[in-house]
TrEMBL record:
Known EC number: 3.3.2.9
Protein name: Epoxide hydrolase
Subcellular location per the Swiss-Prot or TrEMBL entry: Endoplasmic reticulum membrane; Microsome membrane
Species of origin: Sitophilus oryzae (Rice weevil)
UniProt similarity note: Belongs to the peptidase S33 family.
Gene it is expressed from: LOC115884079
Entry annotated with the keyword Oxidoreductase: no
C-alpha cells in the first residue's frame, strides 16, 4: 500500500512537471513594451541630442585606399585546397586568390564611390546612434499615391543589395496606382550606421530604432520588407508596432514556435499535413535537413558566442573578410555551387558587385560590430521575450526562394495567419541582389494586395 502511494505521488509529480513545462512553452505573456528612448551611444546620455537629418556622402580618403592596396599586395601565401575539393571545406583558396587579384588590379574604388553616391543618403541620431540610410523619392509621381517602403538588409549583406530594385520601386508605372518612396537604412553597427557602445542592442531593440527612424522621417505608417536579419528585425517591429505597419513582405518568413516543431515531427507520418506534395523534399527527411542546417550554420554559433574574437581577423585582413563573406554568397545563392571550384559566383553576380558589398564592411571597420548582432539577438534575455512567437496582426506576404530557408504552408499559420500572398520563386538568399526584377515584382504584387486590404479595412471601421 505504501509502495502504491509512493508510485502515485511520483507519477503525479511527473505529470505536474510535464504540465508545467508545456504551460511555459505554449503560454503567451503580454507583448513586452520596450523603451523607445533607451540610449545606446557612448558614455552618459546627454541632456540634448541633435535630432536633425543631415545629408551624407560616402568619401574614403587616399590614405585608406593606399592602406588597402598595400594589404592586398602583401597577401601571404594561402594553403592550397585538398585534392578534388571545391567549396566543401569553406571557400576555395584558389578562388580567394583570383578574387584578390581582381580586387588589386581591376576594382576601382573611386568609380564605385560614385555609384554608391548616386542615391540621396542621410544620417540622423536615433537613441544616441547616428543611423545612415538611403532615402529615394519618386521624381515625378504625378497623381500617383506615394507610399513609404522600409527596406532592411541582413548579414553579410548591406544597402548595396537594394541598388538595383530602387529604380523599379521609385518609377511611376501606369499599371499601378502607387509608387514607392524608399527608405533603406544600414542596421546599427553595419556600414555607415553607428554601433552601440553598450550591450543589449539585439534585433528587438533595433526594431524600435527602425520605427523611430520612420517616425523621424515623417512616416507614421509604412510598408516594410526584409530578408535575413532584416526579416528578424521587421517581424518583431510588426509585433511591437502593428498600428504603424501597413503591410510586411518577407523573403525569410521565420517560424520557431513549439507547435511548429511538433507539427514537423507529426508530419513524418503524413507529410501532407504539413507541406505541399511538390515541396516535400524541402522539409523531409527531417534528419537530413537538420544535418544540412548544422553544416551550414557554424558561423552563426561562432558569431552568437565569440563575435569579438572573430572580428579581429576580419577587420585586419581584407582577404579574410572577403573569404568569410563571399563563402556565404556561394552557398546562400545556390547550395549546389558548393561542388564547383569557381563557387558559381559569376553565374549571378560580378566580382565588382560582390566586392562593393565587402568594401562597405572594410571601409567602415564594422566586421566585429555586425556579427555582434548574433550574440545580442540570441541571448537569453532576447529569447525570453518570445517576440518571434507572436502571430502577426498585420497583413503579410511571403516569398520563398528555391535555395533559401523554407517554412511549409502548414507551419506558417503559427506566426503569419494574415498572409495575403505566398510566392514560390527561383533564386537564393540574396534575392534583391541576385534577381532584382523578380524580387521587385513580388514586392509590388504584395503591396497591391495590401492596398486593397487596407482600403476595405478603412471602409468597414
Amino acid at each position: 500500500m505504501a509502495v502504491c502511494s509512493l508510485c502515485l505521488i511520483v507519477f503525479s509529480a511527473i505529470v505536474g512537471l510535464i504540465g508545467l513545462v508545456i504551460y511555459k512553452l505554449f503560454s503567451k505573456k503580454p507583448i513586452p513594451q520596450l523603451d523607445s528612448t533607451q540610449y545606446w551611444g557612448p558614455g552618459e546620455q546627454p541632456k540634448e541630442i541633435d535630432t536633425s537629418i543631415r545629408s551624407f556622402k560616402i568619401e574614403v580618403s587616399d590614405e585608406e585606399i593606399a592602406d588597402l592596396k598595400w594589404r592586398l599586395d602583401h597577401l601571404r601565401p594561402l594553403q592550397p585546397p585538398l585534392e578534388g575539393i571545391a567549396q566543401e571545406y569553406g571557400i576555395n583558396s584558389n578562388l580567394v586568390k583570383e578574387i584578390v587579384e581582381f580586387w588589386r588590379t581591376k576594382y576601382n574604388w573611386k568609380e564605385r564611390e560614385e555609384v554608391f553616391n548616386q542615391y540621396p543618403q542621410f544620417k540622423t541620431n536615433i537613441q544616441g546612434l547616428d543611423i545612415h540610410y538611403l532615402h529615394v523619392k519618386p521624381a515625378n509621381p504625378g497623381q500617383k499615391k506615394v507610399v513609404p517602403l522600409l527596406l532592411v538588409h541582413g548579414w553579410p549583406g548591406s544597402i548595396r543589395e537594394f541598388y538595383y530594385v530602387i529604380p523599379t520601386f521609385t518609377k511611376v508605372s501606369e499599371e499601378r496606382g502607387f509608387v514607392f518612396e524608399v527608405i533603406a537604412p544600414s542596421i546599427p553597427g553595419y556600414g555607415f550606421s553607428q554601433a552601440a557602445s553598450k550591450p543589449g542592442l539585439g534585433a528587438a531593440q533595433i526594431a524600435v530604432v527602425m520605427n523611430n527612424l520612420m517616425q523621424r522621417i515623417g512616416h507614421k505608417k509604412f510598408y516594410c520588407q526584409g530578408g535575413d536579419f532584416g526579416a528578424i528585425i521587421l517581424q518583431q517591429l510588426c509585433v511591437l508596432y502593428p498600428e504603424n505597419v501597413l503591410g510586411y513582405h518577407t523573403n525569410m518568413a521565420y517560424v520557431a514556435t513549439p507547435w511548429s516543431y511538433i507539427k514537423y515531427a507529426l508530419g513524418t507520418f503524413n507529410k501532407s499535413w504539413v507541406v505541399k506534395p511538390e515541396h516535400t523534399n524541402r522539409v523531409y527527411p527531417l534528419w537530413q535537413k537538420f544535418e544540412h542546417r548544422i553544416l551550414e550554420t557554424g558561423y552563426l554559433h561562432l558569431q552568437a558566442t565569440k563575435p569579438d574574437t572573430l572580428g579581429v581577423g576580419l577587420t585586419d585582413s581584407p582577404a579574410g573578410l572577403a573569404a568569410y563573406i563571399l563563402e556565404k554568397f556561394t552557398t546562400g545563392t545556390n547550395i549546389t555551387w558548393q561542388k564547383r571550384v569557381d563557387g558559381g559566383l559569376l553565374e549571378k553576380y560580378t566580382y565588382i558587385e560582390l566586392l562593393d558589398n565587402v568594401m562597405i564592411y572594410w571601409w567602415t571597420r564594422t566586421a566585429t560590430t555586425s556579427v555582434r548582432l548574433y550574440a545580442e539577438s540570441f541571448s537569453k534575455k532576447q529569447r525570453a521575450m518570445k517576440l518571434l512567437m507572436y502571430p502577426l496582426r498585420v497583413p503579410t506576404a511571403i516569398a520563398r526562394y528555391k535555395y533559401d530557408f523554407y517554412f511549409a504552408d502548414g507551419i506558417l499559420d503559427e506566426v503569419f495567419p494574415n498572409r495575403l500572398q505566398v510566392s514560390d520563386l527561383d533564386g537564393g538568399h540574396f534575392a534583391a541582389f541576385e534577381i532584382p526584377d523578380l524580387f521587385a515584382a513580388d514586392v509590388i504584387s504584395a503591396v497591391e494586395k495590401f492596398e486593397k486590404y487596407n482600403s476595405i479595412k478603412e471602409k468597414t471601421e
